[in-house]
Write a structure and sequence with these properties.
The chain is mostly helical. It has one domain: Winged helix-like DNA-binding domain superfamily/Winged helix DNA-binding domain (Arc Repressor Mutant, subunit A, Orthogonal Bundle), CATH 1.10.10.10.
Length: about 150
């Protein structure tokens, strides 16, 4: 259905592009949410565990940025993962204000079991694109992100 409104050729194109990006993200995110939740985790919990598994101990601030969360939500995610025994937190002697999270042996076992299937899922979501198209898309989205960072 064609809209009867136009906001100019460039604006219309930009809005159509944004809608396609958002729809693709939503479609893939919904599939991955279903997979992750079938493993007893939320997507945010999975993101935290994956980051800690692959990168080692990280501060709560670092995790918040890495998994694109908010400080309030991250507090809840960390609390829930600690209660499940999947991560632990410590305050370094050098700065007691900082909280460093790390994955437990149990958490590492879970993520090492889930992650290969997650990686295969990701491969499958993008199999409709050639390697070159994936590289191009990645470069274009990176360019878009960098051009629109805070502070320009």
């Amino acid at each position: 259905m064609k809209s009867k409104y136009s906001y100019g050729q460039k604006a219309d194109r930009a809005m159509r592009t944004w809608i396609e990006i958002a729809r693709a993200f939503s479609t893939i995110r919904a599939k991955e949410n279903e997979f992750i939740e079938s493993k007893g985790l939320t997507i945010q919990q999975f993101g935290v565990m994956e980051a800690l598994y692959h990168m080692g101990g990280l501060t709560v601030g670092e995790l918040t940025k890495l998994v694109l969360s908010t400080p309030g939500n991250m507090t809840v995610v960390i609390k829930n993962l600690k209660e499940k025994g999947l991560i632990e937190t410590k305050h370094p002697e050098t700065d007691r204000r900082v909280t460093v999270a790390s994955i437990t042996e149990e958490g590492g076992g879970i993520i090492s079991e889930i992650f290969p299937d997650h990686a295969k899922n990701m491969e499958g979501y993008f199999e409709c694109l050639s390697d070159e198209e994936q590289d191009t898309l990645s470069a274009i989205i990176r360019k878009l992100r960098k051009a629109n960072r805070k502070g320009g």
